[in-house]
């Protein structure tokens, strides 16, 4: 076994990410902000996929509700992030609790179909809101405000997103090391054994669902602050598919895989759209190829090399 | 609301229900045998409509357009099964779903490349334009009646295949007792390929039914696919009978929701809600019966 | 002696197929009670009815005198009913120690705790003692997925013991074990005799007669006899129903 190089790789990546706003131009900073926000959303979805062990095509509900709630509160005159963001996260958590209680009564493919239907439901709801511009969407006048940090400067926003992303990574790593996290992973491995031990799998699945939704909701908050423009497509099932694509490009079940997958996806999307208007076909073909030809995402493959044997970073 | 309107909308609703059933039947058959949800099923719906428009434009023959569209889409689906899905049966839901999602992206973009972004229209055959009185004082487009007849014929055809042929017996057996069928020497893999073909053919019929009443454009199959999944959730995943009942309910509820809600609670709120009515219906069914209206045999 | 686990006219049918027919079974506190019967007699179904994995069509299950018929498995487990599974049912991605620490934490009824798992050092010590007890000394940090079948059977038993249960339902703990492993498992179960109330479902007749205080015989879902090993050996009905068309493996 070689030396474990995953930590040095992580530190190197983080250092590069922190240095970026001081060396890159505003285009790069904005692109990178987008990568990190989608990375956070992908991370939230992957928490549910890898640790709770269920596939959801409905997590864009929480991306969209996080984003829309932030926009609506901001437009209603609440500008302070310290006030708006906790309210939005609470709202997303309650929505996730309601959706989870309905959907988690089933499992497997049934669950996947229900979550898909839920996102479509929200999509239609948002699309039919004339006041919010219908299909066209609407623009948000300003970012939320923080004391001491001026978010209207894209570099500051980028750094905030980066710190929050690292915080989420740390939070997931911490949860995994607790009995709560162990119970969640235990019901993925064997729900029957978990209930034979006296623990109700439903509760752990549901709390895992809500936790992952809140992470995606935070990504939604940051999305609104970054783009200042929202459309119902944020709740579309295409985006659900794309977020899962980010997860599997990088690799599921590792903390960096979904983030790096999201970065790669955003980069590819950007580059392909310069080359051809039909870049969607390219992404679709890439997705099929990734599934058919590779057993795991690129980061997981790389991490196994760096770390000797274990895939968990 | 007059009786005439009521009857007309009821038939429209049932017709939409039949179209959804044809879609749901294909997804259900594939699910039953291979435990796989094929998101690209909506692409089959779309491609059939496009091919029919293109062939009709070239040959001016409806018959030829329909035959080429249905045959082409069935062959395409069987090729997809062989090349893409077969290697994925042993994998998890994630890989299967994402591969089929990748196909959706590819097909939608191919449609744009070949036929452009502007919607196309298939004109109604002159023989079927015009209206008839289905009840005294209730005129109804002939074309829509013909479409319903086509859907019912396709449904009956499926029923005949399932109940009267060896292949149908094996398909039903494969859905219930896969190991037993395999032990008896039945070639499940060949059946899976056939099922993809039959499912796509039904989706093709649904696409052809819709082509003259809806603009043919890239991505047109995707909302239909999600409606189809809602139908399956309400009916009980894996059950054809449940899919039929749920499809008719969803078709009628959706149609009446679009007409009644704006009248009842005002245009804005009504049209907002009418898109969501069937999802609310789905949520209610989930609360009362989490596994759908009809319990599946599998 | 008092009855700790009881069934009253317990019945389970799937459509027309009756797998459990009006079973009245009583487990006395502290006894090792073997449940035998030919393949398809409904032994595992009965265990599943007792543990709550299946819910009965009719009849009742009582634990320490209280009706638990409608309780889901996890609530029964919390009341002191532990079980092992015929087919090993474990957390594949966990180490043996992590599985056991989780099982020990579960005794408190929930695991909504946010301390570090590794911080529960007294539970880790207890987990290791349990591993020593079932013969998995030194295997605490091996992932479950890379353990042998025999080790899985031992871990199953350790997980049941971790609950400090009132009653243990052991569904064929010797299933698939080799001769030497079986002998070790019998020795292990013998050491538990009297300390726990055990319902032992087993095919291995040597094991049954070596371990059981009492034996119940199930045939076609019906309880046809209950008695001491000597009674069962000499019971003509049992011989016919069981040993008659089955050589007792």
Task: Give an overview of the whole structure.
The complex is a heterotrimer of chains A (313), B (298) and C (249). Chain A has helices at 6-23, 26-52, 60-75, 81-103, 108-127, 154-176, 179-196, 201-227, 237-250, 257-275, 279-293, 298-307; strands at 138-139, 229-230. With 313 residues, chain A is mainly alpha-helical. In chain A, strands 1-2 form a two-stranded antiparallel sheet. Chain A is globular and about 55 Å long. The relative contact order of chain A is 0.18. Chain B is mainly alpha-helical and 298 residues long. Chain B is built from 12 helices and 2 strands; from the N terminus they run ααααββαααααααα. In chain B, β1 (131-135) and β2 form a beta hairpin. In chain B, α1 packs across α6 (166-176), α2 runs antiparallel to α3 (62-85) and α2 (41-59) crosses α8 (188-210). Chain B is globular. In chain B, 49% of the residues are buried. In chain C, a hairpin with a 2-residue loop joins β1 and β2 (17-23). Chain C starts with a strand and ends in a 5-residue tail after the last helix. Chains A and C meet through α7 and α8 of A and α2 and α3 of C.
Low-confidence stretches of chain B are: none
Shape of chain B: globular
- Characterize the main sheet of chain C: 6 strands, mixed
Strand order of the largest sheet of chain C: 7-8-9-4-10-11
The largest contact between protein chains, plus residue counts on each side, is: A-B, 41 and 46 residues
Task: Kindly provide the name of the CATH class of the largest domain in chain C.
Answer: Alpha Beta
Structural class of chain B: mainly alpha
Outline the biggest β-sheet of chain B. Answer: 2 strands, antiparallel
What CATH architecture of the largest domain in chain C do you see? 3-Layer(aba) Sandwich
Number of strands of chain B: 2
First and last CA, distance of chain B: 43 Å
- What count of structural domains of chain C? 2
- How much helicity do the residues of chain B have? over 70%
Given as residue ranges, the uncertain stretches of chain C (5+ residues, pLDDT < 50) are: 245-249
| Strand residues, percent of chain C | 15-25%
């Amino acid at each position: 076994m070689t030396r474990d190089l995953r930590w040095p790789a992580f530190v190197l990546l983080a250092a590069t990410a922190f240095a970026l706003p001081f060396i890159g131009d505003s285009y790069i900073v904005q692109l990178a902000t987008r990568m990190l926000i989608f990375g956070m959303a992908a991370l939230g979805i992957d928490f549910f996929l890898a640790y709770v062990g269920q596939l959801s095509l409905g997590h864009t509900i929480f991306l969209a509700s996080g984003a829309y709630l932030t926009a609506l509160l901001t437009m209603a005159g609440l500008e302070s992030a310290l006030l708006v963001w906790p309210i939005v996260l609470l709202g997303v958590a309650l929505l996730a609790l309601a959706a989870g209680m309905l959907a988690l009564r089933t499992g497997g493919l049934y669950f996947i179909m229900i979550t898909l239907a839920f996102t479509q439901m929200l999509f239609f709801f948002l699309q039919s809101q004339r006041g919010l511009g219908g299909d066209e969407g609407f623009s948000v006048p300003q970012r939320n405000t923080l004391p001491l940090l001026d978010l209207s400067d894209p570099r500051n926003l980028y750094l905030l997103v980066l710190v929050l992303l690292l915080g989420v990574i740390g939070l997931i790593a911490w949860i995994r090391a607790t009995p709560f996290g162990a119970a969640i992973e235990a019901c993925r491995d064997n729900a029957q054994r978990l209930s034979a031990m006296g623990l109700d799998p439903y509760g752990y699945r549901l709390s895992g669902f809500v936790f992952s939704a809140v992470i995606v909701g935070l990504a939604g908050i940051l999305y609104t602050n970054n783009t200042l423009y929202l459309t119902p497509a944020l709740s579309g099932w295409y985006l659900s598919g794309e977020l899962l694509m980010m997860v599997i490009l990088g690799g599921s079940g590792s903390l960096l895989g979904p983030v790096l997958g999201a970065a790669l996806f955003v980069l590819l999307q950007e580059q392909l759209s310069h080359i051809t208007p039909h870049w969607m076909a390219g992404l679709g073909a890439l997705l099929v190829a990734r599934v058919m030809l590779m057993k795991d995402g690129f980061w997981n493959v790389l991490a196994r090399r760096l770390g000797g044997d274990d895939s968990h970073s | 609301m007059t009786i005439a309107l009521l009857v007309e909308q009821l038939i429209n609703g049932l017709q939409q229900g039949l179209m959804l059933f044809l879609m749901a039947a294909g997804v259900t058959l594939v699910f039953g045998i291979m435990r796989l949800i094929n998101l690209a099923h909506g692409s089959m719906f779309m491609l059939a409509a496009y091919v029919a428009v293109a062939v009709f434009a070239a040959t001016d023959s409806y018959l030829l357009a329909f035959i080429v569209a249905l045959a082409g889409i069935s062959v395409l689906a069987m090729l997809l099964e062989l090349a893409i899905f077969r290697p994925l049966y042993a994998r998890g839901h994630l890989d299967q779903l994402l591969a089929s999602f990748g196909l959706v992206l590819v097909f939608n973009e191919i449609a744009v490349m070949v036929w452009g972004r502007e919607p196309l229209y298939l004109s109604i055959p002159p023989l079927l334009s015009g209206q008839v009185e289905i009840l005294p004082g209730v005129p109804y487009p002939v074309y829509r009646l013909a479409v319903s007849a086509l859907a019912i014929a396709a449904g009956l055809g499926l029923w005949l295949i399932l109940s009267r042929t060896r292949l149908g017996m094996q398909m039903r057996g494969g859905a219930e007792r896969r190991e037993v069928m395999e032990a008896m020497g039945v070639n499940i893999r060949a059946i899976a390929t056939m099922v993809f073909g039959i499912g796509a053919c039904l989706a093709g019929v649904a696409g052809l039914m819709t082509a003259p009443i809806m603009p043919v454009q890239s991505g047109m199959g995707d909302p239909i696919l999600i409606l189809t999944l809602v139908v399956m959730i309400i009916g009980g995943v894996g059950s054809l009978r449940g899919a039929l009942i749920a499809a008719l309910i969803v078709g009628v509820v959706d149609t009446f929701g679009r007409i009644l809600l704006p009248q009842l609670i005002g245009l804005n709120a009504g049209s907002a809600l009418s898109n969501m009515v069937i999802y609310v219906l789905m949520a209610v069914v989930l609360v009362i019966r989490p596994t759908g209206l009809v319990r599946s045999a599998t | 002696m008092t009855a700790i686990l009881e069934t009253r006219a317990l019945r389970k049918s799937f459509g027309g197929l009756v797998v459990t027919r009006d079973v009245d079974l009583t487990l006395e506190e502290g006894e090792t009670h073997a449940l035998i019967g030919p393949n398809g007699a409904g032994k595992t179904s009965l265990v599943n009815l007792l543990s709550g994995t299946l819910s009965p069509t009719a009849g009742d299950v009582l634990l320490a005198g209280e009706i638990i018929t409608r309780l889901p498995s996890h609530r029964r487990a919390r009341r002191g009913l532990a079980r092992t599974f015929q087919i090993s049912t474990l957390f594949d991605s966990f180490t043996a120690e992590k599985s056991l620490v989780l099982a020990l934490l579960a005794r408190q009824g929930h695991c909504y705790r946010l301390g570090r798992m590794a911080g529960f050092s007294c539970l880790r010590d207890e987990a290791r003692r349990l591993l020593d007890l079932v013969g998995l000394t030194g295997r605490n940090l091996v992932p479950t997925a890379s353990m042998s079948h025999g080790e899985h059977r031992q871990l199953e038993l350790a997980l049941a013991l971790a609950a400090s249960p009132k009653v243990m339902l052991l569904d064929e703990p010797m299933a698939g074990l080799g001769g030497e492993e079986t002998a070790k498992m019998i020795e292990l179960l013998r050491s538990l005799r009297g300390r726990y109330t055990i319902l032992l479902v087993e095919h291995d007749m040597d094991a049954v007669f070596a371990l059981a205080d009492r034996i119940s015989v199930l045939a076609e879902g019906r309880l046809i006899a209950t008695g001491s090993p000597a009674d069962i050996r000499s019971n003509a009905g049992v011989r016919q129903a069981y040993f008659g068309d089955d050589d007792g493996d």
